[in-house]
Design a protein that fits this description.
Elements: E1 6-14, H1 20-30, E2 35-40, H2 41-47, H3 51-65, E3 71-76, H4 78-81, H5 93-103, E4 111-115, H6 120-125, E5 134-138, H7 143-156, E6 160-162, H8 169-176, H9 183-196, E7 201-203, H10 204-213
Parallel strand pairs: 1-4, 1-5, 2-3, 3-4, 6-7
Helix pairs in contact: 3-5, 7-9, 9-10
Catalytic activity: ATP + H2O = ADP + phosphate + H(+)
Keywords: ATP-binding, Cytoplasm, ER-Golgi transport, Hydrolase, Magnesium, Metal-binding, Nucleotide-binding, Protein transport, Transport
GO molecular function: ATP binding; ATP hydrolysis activity; metal ion binding
């Protein structure tokens, strides 16, 4: 039987709508680790039709990770992976009992495990929370974070933001009113504002209008 040891285990706890899958996918792109397994409920459903088959896919991912010098395993939405439903505390015992032993092995080796959840209380009840060394709370964005997202998004799209981002009223007035904007909402508004702007520019007024039109 193969023994697994883990370099690190981290569990970001995301507020709804904060774009956990997008954030985890970006982390995977930026890491220097060559071997990455990204596991989500959707990917398991596409690959397997039974709980036993899905559990086997998860176990195989950990086994493969242990065969390389360094690896990253991402469990995107671990509550969905174990099919957790708060009503009646329903979940897949087959998948849960596959994951828990894998996470509880020694944690000072070569495999980095990063999981995410929107349901910290439920994962605590199932014993998943106790498996993770680091628990990170990821909420909605503050003003500097929103400005940085727009800046990085424009760079990635080769666009120029036409306006003063530091004084952009679309963010300032929402901050003053205590209105929270999630990453998903902001990315949605940026994509639609881009369609309204011309050429290689993202015009501040177009983003402002999109934020207003979507009720953010």
């Amino acid at each position: 039987m193969r023994t697994f040891t883990y370099l690190h285990l981290s569990l970001p706890v995301f507020a709804p709508g904060t774009g956990k899958s997008s954030i985890l996918a970006q982390l995977c792109k930026e890491t220097k680790i060559e071997f990455i397994k990204f596991i989500s409920a959707d990917s398991l459903i596409r690959q397997a039709s039974t709980e036993q088959q899905r559990a086997a896919i998860i176990a195989q991912a950990f086994d493969d990770a242990n065969r390389v010098p360094e690896a990253l395993i991402v469990l995107d939405g671990i509550e969905q992976i174990v099919q957790f439903a708060p009503s009646g505390m329903r979940y897949s015992n087959v998948i849960l009992q596959t994951i828990l032993p894998l996470l509880k092995n020694p944690r000072n080796g070569r495999v980095f495990v990063l999981a995410s959840t929107n349901c910290m209380a439920g994962m605590s009840d199932l014993g998943v929370l106790d498996c993770f060394i680091n628990r990170l709370s990821v909420g909605t964005m503050d003003l500097p974070s929103m400005q940085e997202v727009v800046r990085e998004w424009c760079m990635a799209k080769n666009l120029i933001f036409q306006g003063n981002l530091q004084q952009f009223q679309g963010f300032l007035k929402r901050q003053e009113a205590g209105i929270e904007i999630s990453l998903n909402q902001l990315l949605f508004a940026l994509e639609y504002a881009r369609g309204s702007s011309e050429g290689a520019n993202l015009i501040a007024e177009d983003l402002e209008k999109q934020l207003d039109d979507t009720g953010i």
